[in-house]
Amino acid sequence: MSTVEVSKPAGTFITVTRTKTDSVVAEPADRLLEVHDPGVAGPPNVLAIGSVTSGAAPAVSITGVAPSQTINFVLPVGGNYNHTQSTASSTWTITHNLGFRPAVSVVDSGGNHVIGDVNYVSVNALTVSFSAPFGGSAYLS
């Protein structure tokens, strides 16, 4: 890998052409240009998939030493929650304790899909506001 550090005013360009033995710099360049020889390349890295587990928060870790390493994943726990609004209301307050902001689908007591304004109070609670009071179900996922 070559390291090229260039500090130049806008509109000027530097072209570096590298052969096996020489580096050629084409001007205009009115600032510093420094090229470092990377040396001999090492063996290619092998990255294997290790464990994939579930947890409260997502995480990724890499173990081992190049060129043989393992990547491990912790995926957040998903879930769903069904809320029944038995009393007609124009604002539904839903505490779901899912730990994330879920998608919300609302159906009235007649089975019709209803659009409301969702306000996420926290990652565990939300409100849904409607233009008129009614009862039904909210499906969160």
Features:
141 residues; 3 domains; five-stranded antiparallel β-sheet; mainly beta
Cα shape:
elongated
Rg over CA atoms: 29 Å
Question: What's the main sheet like?
Answer: 5 strands, antiparallel
The portion of residues forming beta strands comes to: over 45%
Order of helices and strands: EEEEEEEEEEEE
Mean pLDDT: 83
Multimeric organization? single chain
Low-confidence stretches: none
SSE class: mainly beta
SS summary, helix count: 0
What is the rounded distance between the termini? 46 Å
Topology, number of strands: 12
Secondary structure: helix percent = under 10%
Supply the number of structural domains. Answer: 3
What this model shows, in words?
It contains no helices and twelve strands. It has 141 residues and is mainly beta. Strands 8, 9, 10, 11 and 12 form a five-stranded antiparallel sheet that branches. Strands 5-7-6 form a three-stranded mixed sheet, with no helix packed on it. A two-stranded antiparallel ribbon has the order 1-4. The chain folds into three domains: 3-36, no CATH class; 46-76, no CATH class; 81-140, no CATH class. It is elongated and about 75 Å long. Helix content is 0%, strand content 61%.
